[in-house]
Amino acid sequence: MTLTIGDTAPDFEADTTEGRIRFHDWIGDSWAVLFSHPRDFTPVCTTELGYMAKIKPDFDRRDVKIIGLSVDPLDNHVSWAQDIADTQGAAPNYPMIADTDFAVSKAYGMLPADAAGDPTDRTPAQNATLRNVFVIGPDKTIKLMLIYPMTIGRNFDEVLRVIDALQLAATHKIATPAQWRQGDDVIIAGSVSDEEAHQIYPNGWHAPRPYLRIVPSPLSPA
């Protein structure tokens, strides 16, 4: 299955380290980040899971739930969590999906439809495409998709930055420029006419070009 931004995130039931869940019900009215891993006990993923545990409060403040995925069984997840705590200083404090039948991985287009067999017989290289990040909104649609190679650690600070921009755009008719950070100026969305923009921004805007209308962020300090 090929997914893209704007598609409904496939719903599923799965066993996790925090019990069995139905994904859409688990998300509820929150945002969610689903990030996948080729196998348990892999080096780069070990560092990522530990870092996510450390910055989970940053996701909590944004009303974003975190959930990981690997094809390993739950007992491996539990053992791996101890390794992560020992080497990274923090164990996963969010659920990890045990996708032992590859159902979730296939539904999200991360593994081919013919993937089968004992998941613990597969090498990490066979699951190299399980290096995805999906940001999913409260409406259960996919807002962001990232895919990383096995050798490159993911930048979850960037995921937080994008979530800030997505949440701002969801509540205001704006877009964000390159390298945007919370509090920086924003761009009036192209779908907003000048007439409507004058109602929203009565003090006007800076426009180096008619299509590039720059205003202070609605969340900037007064």
TrEMBL record:
One of its GO terms (cellular component) is cytosol. The active site is at C45 (cysteine sulfenic acid (-soh) intermediate). Keywords: Antioxidant, Oxidoreductase, Peroxidase, Redox-active center. GO terms for molecular function: thioredoxin peroxidase activity. Residues 3-168 form the Thioredoxin domain. GO terms for biological process: cell redox homeostasis; cellular response to stress; hydrogen peroxide catabolic process; response to oxidative stress. Belongs to the peroxiredoxin family. AhpC/Prx1 subfamily. This is Peroxidase. It comes from Mycolicibacterium sediminis.
